[in-house]
Every structure is written in C-alpha cells, then in structure tokens.
C-alpha cells in the first residue's frame, strides 16, 4: 500500500530534528512502506530541491553515524514541498490538488502530522476537514497531533471536539514520544511477560513508587513556551502520567489499542482528585536560579521548572501506596527512572539490615539514558559475621543487545502508518490527565502555596523537596545512573580479576 505523510510545520525544529531523521532511518532499515511520499507544508517559500538539500544537512547532523550519503540519495526523491499558510483555506484546496497529482489514481494511506505551533492545530484540522482531506474513499486518512494537547482540560476538550468534527476518533493519533521509548514499552514486557513480578506488584509489598524525569538542560531558547507551560504542563500531564499508568495498570486482555487504553484510563480515573486544601502539602515546586534571566522570561516569573507531586490511587491494588512524581530542568544529571520501593522485611535478624526504606528491596527501571533495570537486595558481607549490605543485580540493554536504542519517533511513525494506536493517547485519556493537573495549577495560582523554592542549577531540585520526602517518612532515591554505572563497573573490575 502506498503512503503519504504530510507534515504541517515542515520548516520547524521537530521536522528537522526528529521526524525526517526517523523516516530516513526507517527507510535505511527497509521498514518504511514502499512507496512512501513525504510532503512538507509550511509558509517558507521552498522548492522540492531546496527542501531536500536543507534536510540532507539537518538529517546528517541529527542522525549522526547512521547517516549514509548513498542511502540518503535513495530516500530524498520521496520528499516534496508544498508552500502554504495553515490559516488560508484556499491553500488546503491547492494541497489537495498537489496530493492528488502525486498519488495519481492510486489508493494511498495518508498521515497528516501536525508539527506546528499548537495555536495552528485547530485551523489546520478545520481546513483539512473543509477541504475534504479527511474523507476516506481513496484510502485511510489519519492525523497525528503533537503535544501539548491543550493547556488545561477545557482547551483539551475543545481540541478533541475540533478533531471529532473533521475526523473519527479512530483516525486520531495523539502523540506522547515517551510511549515510543523502548524502555517505556519494556515496562509492559517486564510486568506481563514475566510471572515473578506481578504477585508482589501491589500494596502488600510495595511501600511507594517514584517516577523521576530529571534533565540537566535549562529552558534555553524555549522561555516563551515555558512561561505558558511550566514543568507540570510540559512533563507531568503527559510523560510522567503515562509512565504512572503503565506502572499501575492491570494486565489488558490483549495487546490491542483499546484494551491497553481502557486499563490506563481506569488508573487515571482511580487517582484521587487533589482537593485545593491538600495541594500545599502534596506538592513541591521550584525554580532554578537564573530562570528569570532566560530570554522571554518575566523578571518576576512564578513558573515552576521543578515539581514533585504525591498521587494516591484509590483501587484494590494500590490503596495507601503513594506515587511520587518528580521532574525538573537544570538538575544534576539527565535521568528518567521508575523506582519501585518495596517494604522493609517485617523483622530483621541480621546486623546492618534495612532500617530505612532506602535499604529495603528496590527495583529501579532506568528509562534513559543508561537503559536497564536494577534489583537491589541485601547480601551477606563475606567474612564479616552476619553483616549484610545492599547490593544489586544490574541489567543494561547495551550489554545484552547490539544495535543501540532507536529514537522513539521511528516506532511511533511506523505505528501510525500501520494503524496501530496502542502507543497513542485516546481522547478520554488526555482529558482525564488534565483533570489531575488542573486542580494543582489552580491551587498554586490562587494560594501561592507551597512556596516556590529557588534551587541551584546542577542540584537534585530544591532541598525543600528532600525535606518534604522526609516529612513523609521517606527519601528520594537519587542516583545518577550513568555515573553510578561508570563508578560501579570500574569499582568492580579489580575485584573480578582478583
Ligand atoms: C518534551 C518537553 O516533551 O520532552 C521538553 O517539551 C523535554 O521540555 C522533553 O525536554 C524531554 O524528552 P526526552 O525524550 O529528552 O526525555
């Protein structure tokens, strides 16, 4: 079957940095359906050749070592450019003509990818609908909507309504690139392709769960966007809540889009809504020192670049088990990890055994960058009586598999072309996720509580977030996995050779 991918926002950063390199990689690996035409739509006046040349340069930069000039020569003729303005309905009529010419009489699956600034989503959707471009008599039509999907529940619902006026829900693919990460998908494999974890994956054995997405980068040139978003909208509503749902959900009956999404939605529905009076105690917010001096940032900005949130899931499996979500910019290292912190043994016979949660068993799922899983458990220290110490079993993808971990967009783009929506959010899912975030943002704005801590760049967020965890009788597990791995392997090598 022929495919056409139409990218709106063709001259933008996402197209250059992610979409075209991913499509090129799929071509190079011979996974891109043939023929696939890629049509860029944007206001910048370009010809096909000029766009190809620009993309050759950006793809070489972003695809890195896997860029191969010969493979690019094979891929580039599939790239076409159509200059147009999203806000002008007439430009969609000419797009329609251009696509008909490219595709000929042939039936073709079409994917419309909204890679524009979010304010153009609604006009693009309406004009696609009005120009008859969502109509499916000459092949399936799908639309991909990038994040942010709205800025709160009301705007997300409005966007869903706009989509549903032009497209059926089955045609809509709301992207969250975290779901395209191999290690996020591996969460499902870890839980549901192994029998040993599921019996202990519940309130009887788990003390709490931590989901951290720490970034070293600052907001840089994205200050304008960040001032409207903040870390709660930018990372929690989507990436962190997606990881929470995969960690907490029940096993779906089948590996199918709606079966998976039904289970995720059940988790979101079970998350206890945060009452305004609880927000100060259940959240931490911070801003890195220097944020207010970033370009396009207000000198008195109250926007959070760090947040920690405690969520409770009111169901049989998770009653009483807090899920701590945390994310920040300008942190000490880049790491996304999920920590399943198990309970302490009910009675300790041995010296040096668990006395704090940090000493009890722990499963650390490294989403990135040191992709892997570690199981922490107590071991007898040799020749030291019955002294015990926390040690770990350490699995790393890079040690067991060759070929590296592909960028999330490769998997997601291929899934859209094949019509598999398992790794995309459904309309009810995004609205429910906003329903968890909105009350927190509203309470922060109305009460100014909790205070906005300022933290030094290069730290694990504000020290107040540690105090907050201590008040809960817990501690964050803060290990920079790359450094830890480097240190632990170098520390291990002499002893293995002894
Ligand atoms: C994006 C956010 O969705 O995810 C960025 O807008 C963030 O602010 C990025 O930096 C993180 O993605 P990754 O894949 O680098 O963890």
What does this 3D model show about the protein?
The protein is an alpha/beta fold and 498 residues long. It has 15 helices and 15 strands. The chain has helices spanning 13-28, 48-63, 69-75, 89-103, 121-130, 153-166, 182-192, 223-248, 257-270, 279-282, 397-400, 408-418, 427-447, 463-471, 481-497, and strands at 2-8, 36-42, 79-83, 108-114, 141-145, 172-174, 206-214, 283-288, 306-311, 323-328, 335-342, 362-368, 372-380, 388-396, 452-455. It has a nine-stranded mixed β-sheet, with helices on both faces. Strand 5 (141-145), helix 6 (153-166) and strand 6 (172-174) form a beta-alpha-beta unit. Helix 1 packs across helix 12. The longest helix has 26 residues, at 223-248. The protein starts with a strand and ends with a helix. The site of 6-O-phosphono-beta-D-glucopyranose has 4 residues, from loops.
Please give the count of helices: 15
Given as residue ranges, the uncertain stretches (5+ residues, pLDDT < 50) are 488-498
Mean of residue pLDDT values: 94
- SSE topology string: EHEHHEHEHEHEHEHHHEEEEEEEHHHEHH
Distance between the termini: 60 Å
Cofactors, ions, other ligands = 6-O-phosphono-beta-D-glucopyranose
Helical percent range? 25-40%
Largest sheet: 9 strands, mixed
Q: What is the SS-derived class?
A: alpha/beta
Give the C-alpha Rg: 24 Å
């Amino acid at each position: 079957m022929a495919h056409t991918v139409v990218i709106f926002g063709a001259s933008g950063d996402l197209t250059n940095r992610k979409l075209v390199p991913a499509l090129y990689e799929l071509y190079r690996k011979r996974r891109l359906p043939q023929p696939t035409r890629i049509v860029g739509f944007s206001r910048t006046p370009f010809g096909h050749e000029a766009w190809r040349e620009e993309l050759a340069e950006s793809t070489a930069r972003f695809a890195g070592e896997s860029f191969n000039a010969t493979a690019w020569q094979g891929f580039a003729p599939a790239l076409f450019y159509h200059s147009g303005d999203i806000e002008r309905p007439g430009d969609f009529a000419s797009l329609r003509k251009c696509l008909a010419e490219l595709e000929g009489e042939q039936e073709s699956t079409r994917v419309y990818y909204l890679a524009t600034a979010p304010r153009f989503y609604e006009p693009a959707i309406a004009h696609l609908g009005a120009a008859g471009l969502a109509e499916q008599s000459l092949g399936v039509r799908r639309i991909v909507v990038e994040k942010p999907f709205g800025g709160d529940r009301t705007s997300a619902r409005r966007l869903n309504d706009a989509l549903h006026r032009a497209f059926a829900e089955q045609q809509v693919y709301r992207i969250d690139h975290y779901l395209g990460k191999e290690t996020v998908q591996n969460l499902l494999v870890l839980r549901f392709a192994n029998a040993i974890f599921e019996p202990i994956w519940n309130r009887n054995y788990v003390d709490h769960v931590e989901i951290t997405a720490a970034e070293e980068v600052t907001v840089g040139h994205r200050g304008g966007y960040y001032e409207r978003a903040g870390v709660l909208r930018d990372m929690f509503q989507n990436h962190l809540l997606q990881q929470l749902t995969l960690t907490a959900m029940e096993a779906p009956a089948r590996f199918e889009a709606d079966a998976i999404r039904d289970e995720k939605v059940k988790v979101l529905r079970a998350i206890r809504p945060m009452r305004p009076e609880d927000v100060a105690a259940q959240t931490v917010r911070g801003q890195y020192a220097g944020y207010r001096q970033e370009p396009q940032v207000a000198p008195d900005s109250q926007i959070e670049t760090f947040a920690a949130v405690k969520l409770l899931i009111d169901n049989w499996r998770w009653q009483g088990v807090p899920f701590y979500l945390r994310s920040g910019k300008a942190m000490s290292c880049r790491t996304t990890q999920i920590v399943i912190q198990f309970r302490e043994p009910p009675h300790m016979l041995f010296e040096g055994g668990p006395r704090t949660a940090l000493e009890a068993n722990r499963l650390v799922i490294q989403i990135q960058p040191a992709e892997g899983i570690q199981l922490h458990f107590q071991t007898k220290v040799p020749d030291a009586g019955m002294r015990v110490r926390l040690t770990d079993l350490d699995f790393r993808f890079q040690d067991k598999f060759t070929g590296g971990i592909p960028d999330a967009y490769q998997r997601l783009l291929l899934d859209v072309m094949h019509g598999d929506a398992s790794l995309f959010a459904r309309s009810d899912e995004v609205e429910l996720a906003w329903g968890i975030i909105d009350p927190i943002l509203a309470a922060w704005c109305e009460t100014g509580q909790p205070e906005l801590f300022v933290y030094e760049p290069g730290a694990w967020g504000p020290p107040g977030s540690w105090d907050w965890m201590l008040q809960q009788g817990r501690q964050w597990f803060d290990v920079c996995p790359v450094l830890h791995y480097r240190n632990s392997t170098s520390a291990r090598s002499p002893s293995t050779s002894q």
